[in-house]
Design goal:
The protein is built from eight helices and no strands. 66% of the residues lie in helices and 0% in strands.
Length: 148
Amino acid sequence: MSEISQIETTIDQIRNLSTKKEKGLKKKILPHLDQINAFKKQGETDFNKISAAFKDVSAIWLIFLAHAINKEAFPIFDQHVYRAMHYLETGSVEEIPKGNPKKLSIYQERYLLFYQQNRQYADNYKEWDEALWAFGKFLGRYENMFVA
């Protein structure tokens, strides 16, 4: 499978996008498949380099792109993963802060370190991503169970 079709397959796996998100995907991401695939082929591990190439995308899209480029180096991060990480670190449930700069800062300065320190407890990055996502979603749905 070619690099381009691998990225397109990853992007095709995104389901149920809102019209706005689908429009953003087509306008801001798909035109850059060559750059995405070049990073993927190089096995890019420098988040700042990836970020510099995609200045006009949201924090969560940028993190998704980094993940599509190098799944081992850049785990998925969203509201559910943040909630799970915060709970595991502090014992309290907290929602992901608003604003792209804040989200990127948390991802780079806190979550990647958390991932590096704890990923040995999962068999692989996919198991890690799915476990934190599911736990964070659970915490969001049943937050009252965890209030003292």
